[in-house]
Amino acid sequence: MQIILHAGNAKSDVCEVLAAIKAGQIWVYEMKQDKAQEEIKQAHHLYQ
Questions:
Q1: DSSP conformation letters of the chain
Q2: Is 25 left (phi over 0), alpha (psi -120 to 50) or beta?
Q3: Which residues, other chains included, contact 6 with Cβ-Cβ below 8 Å and sequence gap of 6+?
């Protein structure tokens, strides 16, 4: 169940990253991209 949670969080963060890029908000992009990558790593580690 936690895999789904982390994957969903990563997807939400990526959607926010795309919106930030369109709006020219680079600081949001950098913050959310790092958070999305961490969520993906956590989901991956739970899968193994």
A1: -HHHHHHHHHHHHHHHHHHHHHHT-HHHHHHHHHHHHHHHHHHHHHH-
A2: beta
A3: 39, 40, 42, 43, 46
* Phi-psi domain of 32 (left: phi exceeds 0; alpha: psi -120 through 50; beta: other): alpha
Q: What's the CA gap between 29 and 47, in Å, rounded?
A: 27
Question: Mind listing the pLDDT tens digit for each residue in 1-45?
Answer: 888 898 999 999 899 989 989 999 988 888 888 888 998 999 888
Taking Cα atoms as reference points, which of 48, 39, 41 lies closest to residue 5?
39
- Entry pTM: 0.76
